[in-house]
């Protein structure tokens, strides 16, 4: 007794015969499964475009042992080829199920003018399209800035609606919780500045000026810049992800329908939190950086603590701190704007939230670097 | 002289849509929509998938300005009104979003309390009482301190309804209320909608293609057609089912049977 499972399964095979001069008979046999791949139709194309004109195409599928989509794909390909030659194959010899599925697939014609498709555009057109896309983004950013300004105005007049507890929670999240990473990065940056400077200064026997270098470097530039970059990655991304997810869940629409401005309720507390926290974090970062400088000076160059302290105090004045803190605060505002802007612009899918987050970090860092350069030049020109 | 397009004073007209065209950029979704929702109606916006039902709702609740045409509430044209007046009109809306759209960082109680806190002069204790009452109405008493992520989808939807009802709105909008609900929950939601109309006297606008709901609750409707991109029928769905002149509408309301 033979069990179907015991009989060796023959691979899919295609044979072509011409029982009559103008009739092509396609013999399909064996097991047609996707695992084994889809046979090529080259032989078929060769035959129907050959010298002897073919008028009729028929099938013999009696020896097919089993089949799945691979057979349908093969037949669709083959029939497409046949139609190009103006022939309609006669499907009668195929298994009933195959015929039904082919009918089903052909029942609804492909939708035309969906606006999608293989419209190949040249490189210049693509560059143009990308540029236009960016240009379209510009008015959106300006509108957002306008809305932020209006919302800020309402806040000053005491009319902006948001919950004080939200503000405190956000401050907690962006401030104290960021201290460990700010400490680590500031300490390492202080260390690096001190070492790099010390090696050069030692050549002139001027190691004590490490204090000046680290002090001024951290307070004027590095403290604010490092804190800014950390906050861009930590907080800017988190703002964009929070607001983006709220956009996906229609939570922002829910605010709008209630007549509550999402600008006042969501963007303002985030902006205020960063404006409040950034100066403090910048100052903290300055101090940690100088502490790292002291460590290098003491351990490697035998400079006393008091000596280092004295030199630092001598080198710095309040103006330097004001310069650094004003930069830090500016970065904070820019991070809040970039994070909230990207979050509010977010589309309605998980993919879009990811893109919004990435874009928030990139935009924040771009803003920070541009602002750092502009402010440095301005302060230089003003002689501060 | 341009003809006066303002609708005549009809005491029962609550929402009137005039020559509304909706578009995303250059792509027109629906054009020349004209219909009227009477006060106290349960008005169904229906049509096949992708015909712009939810987009129409976004136009009605003031989230998306129309490409052309007007939406009147009583006899005020929403999109021509001053921002302050728009805010006042919107305050009379309650909206249940498809996903519930509860604010995920707030508890259920805080979600319902937020509109009350913003727009009423009630004390926190009074707000607390109202919040409990609203949550009890949708069968969620005792869930005040839960966060939206901690409850099921059906419960989120009911909590969303409690929030939509917080300010005792004149008009309640529902976007696919039964989507994602089991038949029993979906039936209970229908009963709740009928109950709200009876008790609050609110006008209710529902986007749905759930036939059971359409016939149970709807007494007026508009049918949007994705092919011709405009409305092809309007009126009581129970009558449209047998008497509509358009075979598409009859087929839709009879689940594909002609």
Summary keywords:
heterodimer, A: 384 residues, mainly alpha, Transcription Regulator spoIIAA, 8% strand, elongated, disordered N terminus, B: alpha/beta, 24% strand, globular
Would you write up a description of this structure?
By secondary structure, chain A is mainly α. Chain A folds into two domains: 95 residues, 2-Layer Sandwich (Transcription Regulator spoIIAA); 224 residues, no CATH class. Chain A has a three-stranded mixed beta sheet, with helices on one face. Chain A is elongated. Chain A starts with 12 loop residues before the first strand and ends with a helix. Chain B is of the alpha/beta class and 258 residues long. Chain B has a domain of 58 residues. In chain B, a hairpin with a 2-residue loop joins strand 4 and strand 5. In chain B, helix 3 crosses helix 4, helix 3 runs parallel beside helix 5 and helix 4 packs across helix 5. At the A-B interface, helix 8 of A face helix 2 and helix 3 of B.
The amount of beta strand of chain A, in percent, is 5-15%
Count all strands of chain B and give the number.
Answer: 10
Approximately how much beta-strand content do the residues of chain B carry? Answer: 15-25%
Name the poorly predicted regions of chain B. Answer: 1-10
Contiguous uncertain segments of 5+ residues of chain A: 1-6
Shape summary of chain B: globular
Quaternary state of this entry equals heterodimer
């Amino acid at each position: 007794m033979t069990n179907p499972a015991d009989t060796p399964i023959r691979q899919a095979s295609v044979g072509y015969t011409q029982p009559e001069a103008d009739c092509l008979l396609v013999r399909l046999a064996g097991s047609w499964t996707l695992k084994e791949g889809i046979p090529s139709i080259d032989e078929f194309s060769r035959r129907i475009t050959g010298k002897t004109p073919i008028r009729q195409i028929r099938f013999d599928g009696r020896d097919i042992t089993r089949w799945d989509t691979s057979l349908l794909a093969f037949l669709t390909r083959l029939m497409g080829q046949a139609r190009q030659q103006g022939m309609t194959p006669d499907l009668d010899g195929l298994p009933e199920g195959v015929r039904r599925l082919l009918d089903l697939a052909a029942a609804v014609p492909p939708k035309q003018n969906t606006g999608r498709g293989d419209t190949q555009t040249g490189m210049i057109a693509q560059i143009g399209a990308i540029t236009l896309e960016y240009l379209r983004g510009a008015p959106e950013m300006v509108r957002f800035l306008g809305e932020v300004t209006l919302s800020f105005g309402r806040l000053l007049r005491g009319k902006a609606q948001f919950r004080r507890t939200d503000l405190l929670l956000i401050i907690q999240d962006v401030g104290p919780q960021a201290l460990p990473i700010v400490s680590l990065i500031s300490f390492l940056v202080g260390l690096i500045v001190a070492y790099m400077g010390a090696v050069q200064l030692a050549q002139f026997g001027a190691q004590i000026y490490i204090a000046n270098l680290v002090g001024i470097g951290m307070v004027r530039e590095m403290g604010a810049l490092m804190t800014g970059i950390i906050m861009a990655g930590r907080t800017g991304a988190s703002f964009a992800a929070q607001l983006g997810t709220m956009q996906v869940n229609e939570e922002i629409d829910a605010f709008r329908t209630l007549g509550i401005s999402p600008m006042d309720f969501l963007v303002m507390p985030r902006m205020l939190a960063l404006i409040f926290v950034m100066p403090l974090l910048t100052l903290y970062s300055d101090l940690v950086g100088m502490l790292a400088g002291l460590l290098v000076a003491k351990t490697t160059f035998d400079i006393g603590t008091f000596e280092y302290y004295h030199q630092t105090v001598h080198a710095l004045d309040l103006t330097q701190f004001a310069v650094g803190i004003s930069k830090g605060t500016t970065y904070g505002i820019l991070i809040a704007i970039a994070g909230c802007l990207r979050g509010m612009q977010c589309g309605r899918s998980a993919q879009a939230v990811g893109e919004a987050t990435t874009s928030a970090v990139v935009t924040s860092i771009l803003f920070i670097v541009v602002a750092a350069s502009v402010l440095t030049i301005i302060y230089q020109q003003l002689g501060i | 002289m341009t003809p006066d397009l303002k609708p005549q004073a009809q005491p029962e007209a609550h929402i009137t849509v005039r020559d509304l065209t909706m578009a995303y950029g250059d792509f027109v979704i629906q054009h020349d929509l004209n219909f009227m929702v009477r006060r106290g109606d349960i008005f169904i916006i229906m049509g096949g998938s992708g015909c712009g039902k939810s987009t129409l709702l976004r136009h009605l609740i003031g989230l998306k300005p129309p490409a052309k045409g007007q939406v009147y509430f009583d006899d005020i044209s929403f999109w021509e009104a001053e921002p302050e007046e728009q805010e006042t009109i919107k305050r009379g809306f309650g909206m249940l979003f498809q996903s519930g759209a509860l604010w995920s960082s707030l508890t259920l109680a805080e979600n319902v309390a937020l509109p009350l806190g913003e727009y009423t002069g009630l004390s926190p204790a009074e707000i607390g009482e109202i919040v409990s009452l609203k949550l009890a109405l949708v069968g969620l008493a005792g869930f005040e301190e839960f966060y939206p992520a901690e409850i099921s989808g059906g419960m989120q939807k009911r909590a969303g309804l409690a929030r939509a009802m917080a300010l005792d709105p004149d008009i309640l909008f529902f976007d696919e209320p039964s989507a994602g609900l089991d038949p029993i929950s979906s039936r209970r939601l229908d009963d709740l909608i009928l109950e709200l109309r009876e008790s609050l006297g609110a006008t209710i606008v529902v986007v749905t293609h759930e036939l059971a709901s359409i016939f149970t609750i709807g007494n007026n409707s508009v049918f949007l057609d994705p092919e011709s991109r405009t409305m092809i029928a309007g009126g009581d769905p129970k009558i449209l089912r047998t008497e509509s002149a358009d075979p598409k509408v009859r087929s839709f309301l009879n689940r594909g049977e002609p």
